[in-house]
Specification:
- The structure holds 3 protein chains of 3 kinds.
- Chain A has helices at about 1-35, 40-60, 60-85, 90-115, 140-160, 165-175, 175-180, 185-210, 220-235, 240-255, 260-270, 280-285, 285-290, 295-305; strands spanning about 130-135, 135-140.
- By secondary structure, chain A is mainly alpha-helical.
- The termini of chain A are far apart.
- Chain B has a single domain, classed as 3-Layer(aba) Sandwich (Rossmann fold).
- In chain B, helix 3 (about 95-105) packs across helix 4, helix 3 (about 95-105) runs parallel beside helix 5 (about 150-160) and helix 5 runs parallel beside helix 6.
- By secondary structure, chain B is of the alpha/beta class.
- Chain B is about 35% helix and about 25% strand.
- Chain C has 2 domains: about 10-300, ABC transporter involved in vitamin B12 uptake, BtuC, CATH 1.10.3470; about 315-400.
- Helices cover about 75% and strands about 0% of the residues of chain C.
- Chain C contains 17 helices and 4 strands.
- In chain C, a hairpin with a 2-residue loop joins strand 3 (about 355-360) and strand 4.
- In chain C, helix 2 packs antiparallel against helix 10, helix 2 crosses helix 11 (about 245-255) and helix 11 (about 245-255) packs parallel to helix 14.
- Classes of the chains: A mainly alpha, B alpha/beta, C mainly alpha.
- Chains in contact: A-C, B-C.
Chain lengths: ~325, ~250, ~400
């Protein structure tokens, strides 16, 4: 039992931290610009695809370096020539714009790279087990993912709280007009923040591509989950995003690893049930089955009972 | 008889107490002005009465019943209407629709989705009548967001008054207007609030002394005086609170 | 009032005549799809366009209505349940309404991002559940029924698509009329007011939550009616009809058509159905074009096609619409050429070794001449647009200037 638990925890941690890499960029963009970027996971997908192409030429590390830069540049262009124009029409229009962008990027990826799954592999130097517990191995690449995610969180935290840029950004979040009056170029800051946020998503894509497979649906798989995490954590709260990412990662991991369900529960309660009943699906429900539903359930519950999210204080 | 009674009302935001134990009685039918220096908490007081903010302590009674735990729409239904300092209308609806919406609840339409607005003769007549009164009859079909500033202020007033409320609260109704615009606005206010109880916040002392039967002075969240205009004018404490902005006959 | 009656009569007449004009199998099939999507898009507009609620999960009500309707078809076929096929949309509507009452009871407290997120969460929740509750949703394969086993309706057994069309057209007319009338009621008007300024709406006596809830329920009802029609038309339904794809599609329809106008979603539904049915025959890249068109609309025509048409109202009232005709044509010709060249370039780069036949011209992706030809056309037409744009702008000002 305990080895299942430990591995579920480790896997949950890896998933959670990966989710956080996406959620951190999304949070940064939202807290600066008030835009929930629906297309965020699409930039993550772009990161994986660019890294795949680049790594074929100059290897994994080249991909890790250049793919996020390309993705960030694309993000900046999207902000400058798309989002900024839509901004005047309000938040709903912005949300709709990023929704359309997600749709378009998926089509573009299929156009340029095709519909098939790409053979994007993690580098060979990570092809060893970091450690093994109870006969199960924990791969070095997963360790590397954890390391990168923690480095990003630490880096963001330091930049936002200690540096001059961070102070300007924090000020621009709460008082955009005042910051503009102080002579800072707020549109330019916005463009940079959007570029940085999407570049972070790009890094996540580069790293997750080999593990979660690189295919045109990879944005959809993660997209709404990440979206949901920033809402659960509280819009605009970086610590909230971290907590919610880990929460969702662990929750899903435990649910998948567990083997309890309604039959066990009903037996425990001493209730017998009829296999041929129309509600059979309900009686035989088990936790691994509902694992994919849990984040959404959590979201709905959080929004009903604390609409600002776990750590948030904004309510539009 | 008092229509509105505030008893020991206070409001804290975090550690700061913005309204500190305000007690006030508004008589039915009077025109009551609340004045005070910037930051005294006048708008906050309005928000507390109209239900936009909740009280930290104290009580507010309207027509003998407590209203301080009610949602804004419940307070509005009891006959307490208000306008806003910053124009607060329905910008994409036409001028006529703005007024008609303001009339709907008091005319008993509630959430009806089976009655057609176009066929409600008496409702539409009332809306047109109100448009005549606020002088916007010729702009009836224009989206209200496209009106000029003074016209939007008139509409703001119309929306507040249209519901037929007994007590009307106006938050700086002439702020930002030119002298002649303000004069028209005052005449309009007099005309359409005739016979009703009026509570207003206003900075322009000319208008305050012109309209008000009674004046309350709010300084740092406390009422320091509440009296007839002529007594307020001579009040030492009030003059000190205004730090040199001595209220003389000159600008009164 | 008379003008309105005339308009509705014209609408009814159009619905009756259409299948005689487009009488091919494909034509009827497209018309059938339109009846479904127009109702669905109009119901979506009750949320977003009229009520200011951005939903990413409106397909839930459409899909649930559809699933229940297919089950109803099966119950009718098994003679467990005696009911006319013609009234199936009522079952869909009832299910959509019930689901909306339940979900709306907690999701309509706020509009804006919170509402959008709850709708997304609920949508995903239902989709995930649909794969768990296989008995009701049929898993990935979905459930199917047969509309022809019901009691004949005055001899009509709905064996043919054209018979289904008239049934769909009837429900389209009824639903459109009811949704239009809703906009003219106190609840409908207050939905606009709450969209514009929820705070002020509270101060004139209305609970914004209740106002949103009513619109939300009405939208769920009509989405369910559309789902019922879907069930009759296709005789099967899958998880795809309640997932994010369908929710996104209806958002696209409403937005491209124009949110602020009652007719907008109708236009949007027609455009998207045509693209879906016709364009997909010519190119497998039609979704790419749809994506480009959607972003183009959001950026340049935030009020959609209907908004674009309405932009000409002032010129029309001034009686100067004709001033615009020639400049429009002059700009439209190079613009069309530009779009053609772009499409050609996109198609050519996707064509592979086989090349493609583009407007009767054989192009090859291996020949430099083909590429140069398209690039030259694109450059020349872009230049043409640039040249003629100034004239259009001048004409626009002249047409919209104050009349004197």
């Amino acid at each position: 039992m305990s080895e299942v638990f430990i591995f579920a925890t480790l896997n949950g941690l890896v998933t959670g931290l990966l989710l956080f890499m996406l959620a951190s960029g999304l949070t940064l963009i939202f807290s600066m610009m008030g835009v929930l970027n629906f297309a965020h996971a699409s930039f993550y997908m772009l990161g994986a695809y660019f890294a795949y192409t680049i790594s074929g030429v100059i290897g994994f590390w080249g991909g890790l370096l250049f793919a996020p830069l390309i993705v960030g540049a694309i993000g900046a262009i999207v902000e400058r020539y798309g989002l900024r124009r839509v901004h005047a029409s309000g938040h709903v229009a912005e949300l709709v714009f990023t929704f359309g962008l997600a749709f378009l990027i998926e089509e573009l990826v299929q156009f340029f790279w095709g519909r098939d799954t790409k053979n994007y592999q993690s580098p060979e130097i990570f092809d060893f087990a970091l450690f093994s517990l109870f006969g199960q191995e924990f791969s070095a690449y997963r360790g590397f993912m954890i390391f990168i995610a923690i480095a990003i969180f630490a880096g963001l935290y330091v930049v936002l709280t200690r540096s001059r840029v961070g102070i300007i950004i924090q000020a621009a979040i709460s008082h955009p007009n005042t910051v503009a009056n102080l002579g800072h170029n707020v549109p330019f800051i916005f463009m940079c923040v959007f570029g940085t946020g999407t570049a972070l998503a790009g890094i996540a894509g580069v790293i997750a591509g080999p593990v979660l497979t690189t295919f045109p649906g990879m944005a959809t798989v993660l997209g709404s989950i990440v979206f949901i995490i920033v809402v659960i954590g509280g819009l605009g709260s970086l610590p909230g995003a971290l907590i919610a990412s880990l929460l969702v990662g662990l929750l899903q991991s435990y649910a998948i690893a567990s083997d309890v369900g309604m039959p066990e529960l009903l037996t425990l309660l001493g209730i017998s049930f009829d296999r041929n009943h129309p509600l059979n699906d309900l009686w035989t429900l088990n936790l691994p089955q509902i694992a994919p539903v849990l984040p959404y359930l959590l979201l709905v519950l959080v929004l009903i009972f604390k609409p600002t999210g776990l750590m948030g204080n904004r309510e539009e | 008889m008092s229509i509105l009674t505030l008893d020991g009302v206070s409001k804290r935001f975090g550690a700061t107490e913005i309204i500190r134990g305000v007690s006030l009685e508004i008589e039915a039918g009077e025109n009551h002005a609340i004045i005070g220096p910037n930051g005294a908490g006048k708008s906050t007081l309005f928000h507390l009465i109209s239900g936009r903010y909740t009280l930290s302590s104290g009580s507010i009674n309207f027509k003998g019943e407590p209203i301080h735990n009610l949602a804004p729409y419940e307070i509005a239904r009891r006959g307490l209407a208000r306008s806003f300092q910053v124009t607060n209308i329905f910008p994409r609806l036409s001028v006529f629709e703005n007024i008609r919406c303001a009339l709907l609840w008091s005319e008993g339409y509630r959430y009806s989705f089976w009655k057609l607005l176009g066929k409600q003769q008496s409702l539409n007549a009332k809306a047109r009548d109100m448009l005549e009164q606020i002088g916007l009859a010729d702009k009836a079909d224009l989206p209200s967001g496209e009106l000029a500033y003074a016209q939007q202020r008139a509409l703001e007033l119309g929306v507040a008054v249209a519901s037929g409320a007994e007590l009307i609260m106006l938050d700086e109704p002439v702020a930002g207007m030119s002298h002649s615009e303000a004069e028209n606005a005052v005449a309009l206010i007099r005309r359409i609030t005739a016979g009703k109880t009026l509570v207003m916040v206003e900075h322009d002392m000319n208008i305050v002394f012109d309209i008000a039967d009674r004046i309350s002075v709010l300084v740092y969240g406390e009422i320091i005086a509440s009296d007839k205009p002529e007594n307020i004018r001579g009040n030492k404490q009030v003059q000190e609170a205004y730090l040199g902005e001595v209220i003389t006959d000159d600008n009164a | 009032m008379k003008k309105h009656l005339l308009l509705w009569a014209a609408f009814a007449a159009t619905l009756i005549i259409l299948p005689s004009i487009f009488d091919s199998v494909l034509g009827i099939s497209i018309l059938n799809q339109m009846t479904i999507w127009i109702i669905f898009a109009l119901s979506y507009n009750m949320l977003l366009g009229q009520g200011g609620m951005l939903s990413f999960g409106h397909a839930v009500y459409f899909g649930l209505g559809g699933f229940m309707s297919v089950h109803a078809l099966n119950l009718i076929a098994d003679e467990i349940f005696v009911f006319s096929i013609t009234l199936i949309p009522l079952i869909g509507g009832a299910v959509g309404l019930l689901a909306a009452i339940f979900i709306g009871s907690f999701s309509t407290r706020k509009a804006g991002t919170v509402f959008a997120m709850i709708s997304l969460g609920i949508g995903e929740l239902i989709v995930a559940s649909s794969l768990i509750f296989v008995d009701f949703f049929g898993g990935e394969a979905g459930v199917s029924g047969d509309r022809t086993y019901g009691p004949p309706f005055f001899g009509v057994e709905f064996l043919q698509d054209s018979e289904v069309y008239y049934l769909g057209a009837f429900w389209l007319f009824v639903a459109t009329l009811l949704m239009y009338l809703f906009t003219q009621t106190p609840a409908g008007r207050m939905a606009n007011a709450v969209r514009d300024n929820p705070e002020r709406a509270e101060f004139i006596g209305y609970s914004t939550r209740r106002v949103r809830f009513i619109s939300f329920c009405a939208a769920g009802l009509f989405a369910g009616v559309a789902g019922g029609l879907f069930a009759i038309n296709y005789e099967f339904i899958t998880e795809e009809n309640l997932n994010a794809l369908t929710s996104g599609r209806v958002l696209l329809m409403a937005y491209i058509g124009g949110l602020g106008f009652f007719i907008g979603p109708i236009i949007g539904a027609i455009i998207l159905t045509l693209m879906n049915s016709l364009l997909s025959n010519y190119t497998e890249l039609w979704m790419l074009y749809l994506g480009i068109m959607f972003l183009f609309t959001v950026i340049f025509l935030p009020r959609g096609f209907a908004g674009f048409i309405m932009m000409h109202r002032l010129a029309w009232q001034n009686g100067r619409l004709k001033l615009l005709a020639l400049p429009y044509c002059l700009t439209a010709i190079p613009a069309a050429a530009f779009v053609t060249a772009l499409v050609g370039l996109i198609e050519l780069s996707h064509a592979g070794d086989e090349g493609l036949h583009f407007f009767g011209i054989a192009l090859s992706s291996n020949s430099i001449v083909s590429w140069l030809l398209l690039f030259a056309l694109a450059a020349a037409s872009a230049f043409g647009v640039k040249l003629t744009r100034a004239r259009l702008a001048t004409a626009w000002q002249a047409a919209n200037g104050a009349s004197n």
